[in-house]
Amino acid sequence: MTDNGLLPTEEERKKILKETFRYLGYRRTAPDEEVRRAVSGVLPRLTAAIEPREIHRSFPLQRMQKGIFKIEGMELHSRSLERNLAGCGEVWLMAATIGYAPDRMAARASAAGHVSEAVIVQAAGAALIEWWCGRVNESIRQEALAMGKYLRPRFSPGYGDLPLACQRDFFQVMGVTRYVGITLTESLLMMPSKSVTALIGMAEKDAGCLEEGCEVCPKNKTCVYSRLDVGKAPN
Amino acid sequence: MSRFLERLGKERLYWDGGTGSLLQAKGLKGGELPERWNLTRPDVLVDVARSYFAAGSDIVNTNTFGANRLHYPDATELESIVRAGVRHVKEGMRQAGRTDGYVALDIGPSGRLLAPMGDLALEDAIALFAEVVRWGADEGADLVLVETMSDSLEAKTAVLAAKENCDLPVCVTCVYDAGGKMLTGGTVASVVPMLEGLRVDALGLNCSLGPVQMLPIAQELAETASMPVICSPNAGLPRSEGGKTVYDLTADEFAEAMRDIAACGVSVLGGCCGTTPEFIRRTVEETREIPMKPIEKKHRTVVTSFSRAVEIGGRPVLVGERINPTGKKRFKQALRDQDIDYILEQGIDQEEAGADILDVNVGLPEIDEVRMMETIVTRLQGVLALPLQLDTTDAAALERGLRVYNGKPMINSVNGKEESLNTVLPLAAKYGGVVVGLTLDETGIPATADGRVAIAEKIIKEAEKYGIPKEDIIIDGLAMTISTDSGSALTTLETIRRVRCELGVQTILGVSNISFGLPQREIINASFFAMALREGLSCGIINPNSTAMMAAFRAYLALSGQDENCESYVAAYADKKDYTFGLAPKTAGVGTAYAAGGNTRAGSPGASAAGTGAPTAGGSTGASGETGTAGGKNAGGKDPLGDAVSFGMETRAAEEARALLAAGEDPLAIVNGRLIPALDAVGRGFEAGTIFLPQLLMSAEAAKAAFEVVKSAIGTGAQEQKGRVILATVKGDIHDIGKNIVKVLLENYGYEVLDLGKDVPPEEIVQTALREKIRLVGLSALMTTTVVSMEETIRQLRREAPDTLVVVGGAVMTQEYADAIGADCYAKDAMDTVRYADRVLGNGDR
Hints:
A: 235 residues, 3-stranded antiparallel β-sheet, B: alpha/beta, TIM Barrel, 4 domains
C-alpha cells in the first residue's frame, strides 16, 4: 500500500524535531546553535524525500498454551507478549517503512566525510518512522473503534523476549516484501533500515493503555533515549 | 522466433490475474508457503490455470513467485515445485481446451536486498534465479516473467539469470507507486532504458495500484519504451476493512478502467492482487475491440543510474573526468591503498560542481582492475545518483562493471580496430549501454575529418550487426593538442559537426587534450569547449571543478538560448564579485584577517566569510551565515581556530588554519597549540556528558578540515602518527554508522584507520591484521543476531594473530557481552575507543 505525498502536519513537524534531538542524546540539555542549524539543514530535506508505505491486517489470536500464540501459520513464543496481549482475542500485524531516503542520505554523508550529518540523518529518520508508525497506529485505532474494540500498545519483534527470528514468518504472513517492499537480511535486519513491524493486540475492553513504547518499556528508567523526561529539557 | 514473440506487440494479449485470493479461498493460510501447494494440492493449481485460460488469459503464470532457495533450502523439493508449477499450467490449458496459450515461469523478488545497501551479493542473486530458470525452461515454460520488482538491480539480476540460462522470451514488470517511483528510487525514465538495454521482450508494471492510478504511469511507459508494455493492476486500491484487506473495484469497474490503459498503447493486460478470472474475462470483453497502437522506436540516447536518466542530445551534458588516475599522484595512491572513500569524495565533489555523468577509470598496472571496477561502481552507486561512464581498456573490468551496474551506463570506449569492435560490442549488446566510439583504428588517428568520419561510420555499421542502434553510439572526434599541430582543433571541430549532421549521431570529447604542452591550459580548454559546443558537441568530458570550464559552459548555454532568462547563469555568478579563472577551491577561500594584522576576525560579526580576494566560485554557501553567528557568539575570542573547532564549524576551521599559516604561524604550533587542545576539550566534555555526539563529530570534522590545510601546507603528516587500527562492521551487519563515528575520532587523535567497511567476513579481518601487522582491531555490531559473527571474528583472531587486541562496541554491546565473547575491551562510545587506543598503543599520557 502506497501513501505518496503524505507529509507531517506543522504540529507533527514540531514533535519530529523534538524527537530528533532526543535521539541525538539531548534530553536535559538544549542543543547548541550549530547543532540546531545542522539539524535544520537535514530534517526538511529528509522529510521531503521519505516515501511512507504500510500494510496492516488483523487476525484471530490463538492461545496454544501460556506464552505461546498462533497467528495464522506463525507460532510465537514470548512471555512479554503474553502480558502485552492479555485479554485480546485478535491481533493486528503492521509493517511500515519510510523508504530508502534515510539510508541513502546517511551513506552519502558518511562517504563525503560528514559523519555528523549521517548521525543526524539517522536520528531524524528514527523520528520520522516513529511519526509514520503513529499515523498507521491511529488509523488502526479508528478501525478498531468502528468495531467497538480497543488497542494495546504496539509490540515489535525483538522487544522483550519476542525473538527477532519471528520476522521471517511475519514477513511471510503479511507479504511484507511484496506489498511494502521491505527486505530482510540474513541476520534479520530490515532494509530500508527505517522500517517497523509490529503486533497490536485488540480487545473488547479498553485497558486505558498508553500508546507508545517508552512508557511501557522496562528499560525506561535507564535508557538514554527514553522520552519519559524529555519534557524537562530546556528548549 | 517463438509463436509468443510473433504475437507480442502485434495483437492484444491477456495475462492472468491474482492467485493469492483464489488459493486462500481453498484454504491456504497466511504464513504457509504457497508454492508448496504445487506438490500437495496440484488439483487446485491446475484449476486456477484452467479458469484463467477459460476466462480469456493467453498467458498464465506458474505458481513459483517465491520459489527460490531462500524459501526452499532443499534443492530437490524446490526443483519438484518449479517443474510441477509448469506442468499444472500446461494441464490447466489443456483442460480449458486451449492450444494457443503460454506458460510463464514466474519469478518474484527474493526478499533480500542486494549489496551495497543490502547483504545479497549480485552473483548469489543471479544463481538463486538461474536454477529456477533452468528447471522451468527444461519443463517446457514458454517465457519467463520477472515481476513485482521493487529494486531495478534485482530485476536486472533476474533478467541476466534468465538470459544466461535459457532462450525463452523475458518480460519484466516492476512496482511503481502513485508518483511513478520504485521503492529503491527507480522511475520509468531510468528503468526502461536499462531493461531495453538488457533486451527484454516486454516490460511494464504490476501490483501496488489499481488501474486508475496506474494509467499515467502506463502512459509514460508507452511513451518511453520502444517495446511492448504490460500492465497488471490490483483490483483497485487496497483498504483495510474490519482487519481484512479489500480492494475497491468490482470486475466491471476494473474492466472499464482497463479500457483507458488499452487505449494508451499498452499491449498486454492482466491483473494482480484481488483480481480473479472474472476480472480478466470482463477485461477481455471490454478491451478486445480497442485497436492496438503501433509501437514506435523512440531513438533516444539515454544513460541512467538506479534513479536518474540523462538524455544526450538536448542540453549539452557534462561528464566529470576526475575519477581517473592519469597524472594524479594522490588518486593513484588511493587506488593502491584501497582508499575507497577518497574516490567516492571525488565523485560527490563533481556531482556538487554540476557534473551530469561521471567517468570512472580505475586502471593502474599494479592493482586488480576487475575487482576495483566492481568495488568503485557499486560504492559510487551507493552514495550518488549520477549515471556512470565505465572507462577501461580491460575487457574483463568492463564486463564486471557492466554486470554490477544498476542502470544503463556509458561505455568508454570502442574504436575502429577489429579487436576492439569484437570485444566491446558484444558486451554492449548483452548488458546495454551507450558506447563511446573513438575515431581511430589500426592505422592510427586520421589527420583529416574525412578519415575520422569514415571510422565513425564503420563503428556504427559494426554495432548494427550486434543489434546496437545508432542512438546507442556516441562518437569521439578526438581532441589532439594544438601545440604540435595548429590545425588539429579545426579537424576535431569539423568531425563533430559532420558526425552530428551527416551521420545523425551524438558526439563526445575529452576536451582538455587540446592544450597539452601549453601554459595556462584552462584558457585554451575553455575556449575550445565553447567552440565545440557550438559545432554540436553533445557531451564534454571535463573537470567540473574548473571555474573556467564551468564558466565557458554556462556562458555557452546563456548565449545559445538554452538558459531561459539566464537563470542558471545568474544563479551561479550573481554573488561572485571576485571572479577569477582557475580551479575553484573545495571550500571558501583564504581568510586574510591574520595577515592583515589582527586577531579580531571572530570578534567582528560583520566580517565576510569569503575573505578578501578569495576565488569563491563553488564555495560553500553556508559560509557567511556560519561566520555571522560565530562572530556574535564568540565576540572577543582569543583563539578563533580553537573556537571554530569547538563549535564544529568546518569551513571556518579551514579558513582560520589557512589564515594562521599565511600569518606565518608554525604549522606544528597550530596543531599542538590550538587544534589538539580544542579537540581534547570537546572530548572531555563528551565524556563528562556536557557535549553530545553531534557536537563531538562536528568538532572532529572541523579539526579534520584544519588538519588537512596544515598537512597540505607542510607537505607531510601534520600529526604524529600514533599507530594503525583496523575497523570493521562484522559479517552479516550492514549498519556502519557507529564504525564511521569511531573512525573520524581515531583519525582525529592521530591514528591511521584501515577501514574494512561493513559486512566483513572474519577471514578478511584476520588476513588484514596479519598482513599489515596490526595490533588493535575495532569491531562493531548493531544487532544481537550479528554478535555471533563478532565472536567468530575474535576466535579466529586469537588463533591466527594472538597478539592482536580487540575492542568492541555497538548498540547491543555491554561489558558482560564483550567479556563473554572474549574481547579485550568494551568501548561504550567513540571516545572510549580513543582512550583505549591511547592506552594500549602507548600514548596513555594524555
